[in-house]
Every structure is written in structure tokens, then in C-alpha cells.
What we know:
23% helix, alpha+beta, 2 domains, 5 helices, four-stranded mixed sheet, single chain, 10 strands, elongated, Rossmann fold
Amino acid sequence: LLAVAAYGKIFKSIFLNIFSKGGINLHPSILPQFRGPSPIPAVILAGNQQSGVTIQRLALEMDSGNILAQERIALTGNETTAALSEKLAAMGAELFVTAIDSLEKGVVREHAQIEDEASYCKIIKKDDGLIDWGKSADIIERMIRAYNPWPQAFTNYKGLRLAILSGGVLPEERDFSNARNGEVVGVDKSYGILVKTGQGILYIEKLQLQSKKPNDWQSFINGQRTFIGSFLGGE
């Protein structure tokens, strides 16, 4: 039996035929959702309320094999890719052992995936983290979590890369209708630095300017006195 976890390549039949009991794979999503190389960032970006792990048969098409076992968890809406990866890895390890034991005993019940319900995710590239301030604060907040630890959600400030390491959506409505998207409109002592987006206000708690150490928002403002009133996202 060949057992692999989150392996990013498709095995050819000539290789799989070496194993008399075939191969199984641990995939960190609820298949057939989010087939492909980046299911954990993808589920965060989508804003889904649950995630999970799947043990599947290895097949000649990406993540399309019969399902042997699945386990689901509810998402709080605060997960980063780093934190969720760790949690799903622990879940997957236990489920892997259970699935292999069931296979050895011949009691596993497998079923085919429903192709009409399949969705796919892509390889993440460095530029995927670039923030479009015309998007909603909800979408940008999910980017911050999905691209932690890599490639990070980032913007441009005075020609430098500015990574947004943590933040959220301001829960209360405020009238910044005269502000432009990407404008740093102020600070809130309870939340952080406030930035106007295409819909809503994003607050920033922690950020990192190019070639500098990460800072909490207060320390950053103390070192960048002209930051409030500036515009993010320019060249």
C-alpha cells in the first residue's frame, strides 16, 4: 500500500501498479471541494464555515479518487493558513491510521466523489497577496488570514512593500464616504489603523514595512508620523 499526504503530483499508472493494494492520499479539504494544491488558503478565501480532511484512493486525475474516510471541523472565521494547517495535519494523521487499519481488516466503505460538486484551487503565487483596496474589507481580511504565512497580504506604501500581518473588519459603521479606497483614514484605540476599502473599513493590528521588523499598529504609527492620511496601493 502506498500512502502519501498532500502530495502535489499525480502518479502514473505504471508506478501505482507496483503496489498490490494501490495507493491512498490525505487531502486537507472536504473533497470534492477544493481539489488541487492550495485547499487550506482556498477554504479561508471562500469564507466557508467548515473544513476538514479526506482520505482518498490515488487516481490518475487530480484528487478524484474514491473517498475512504472524511472528518470535518467548524471554522470560527479567525483561522490563518498556518494555524489551520497544523490543526488539519493532526486530524489527518489520526484519520490516516484509522483508514489504513480499516483497509487491512477489509471493512472500509468507499464511495465515489460527486463530480458535479467538484471545485478546484490553484498554485499560490507571490503576487496573489497584493491587496486591491477596491475590494470589500471582508475579502481583504480573508486574504490576510489565507496568505499567512506566505506570501502575506501586502500593499505598497511610498514605493515599499507593506505586509498586513493581522487585522479585521471594523464592526461599526462610520462615514468615510469622502475618502478614497486605500486611504488611511485614522486610528481607533480599540482596533488599530483604519483603511477605507471598496466596502467597509479594514482595521490593521500588525504590519511590516519592507526591510523592517513586524510592528504592532501603535509602534508603526509612532515611527511613520505621516501614515495617517496617506494612500496605500500606489506604485
